[in-house]
Design brief:
The chain is an all-alpha fold and 127 residues long. It has one domain. It has 4 helices and no strands. The protein is elongated and about 70 Å long. The protein starts with a helix and ends in a 5-residue tail after the last helix.
Length: 127
């Protein structure tokens, strides 16, 4: 067996790497999709016989969805940081990399979510 093969065989398994990497992107995708649906319902009310949402209700719902996404992103970031501290004995750096990548993705997601609160509050809902 080659030296690379031996290193791969002895590398510690990390069953939670998918969680740490995919959760931030899933939160982002759900936030964008939910926001699009809520704003589309508000902007296309002329196609319905009745008013579904007013502008204040749309903004409140978007705030609630965004704050919920922020809460999930903070939990994901804390889990990534906790796992990062626990990877001191990581021989090949795989656990360290996935923890740092997940932390970076969560940090960027939090930046996006906090910035999203500004246009939700003062921006036009329909263009």
């Amino acid at each position: 067996m080659t030296r690379v093969g031996e290193r791969i065989d002895h590398a510690p398994r990390d069953p939670g790497w998918r969680w740490r990497i995919l959760v931030p992107f899933s939160i982002w995708g759900l936030h964008v999709s939910t926001g699009y649906v809520i704003v589309a319902l508000y902007c296309h009310q002329q196609f319905f016989d009745y008013e579904i949402l007013g502008a204040p209700a749309t903004r409140v719902i978007m705030w609630a969805v965004t704050l919920l996404a922020i809460a999930f992103a903070v939990v994901a970031l804390l889990r990534n940081l906790a796992h990062r501290r626990a990877t001191a004995a990581d021989a090949n750096g795989r656990l360290w990399f996935t923890s740092n990548f997940g932390s970076l993705a969560c940090g960027l997601l939090l930046l996006y979510l906090v910035w999203t609160l500004v246009p939700i509050t003062i921006g036009e809902l329909c263009w």
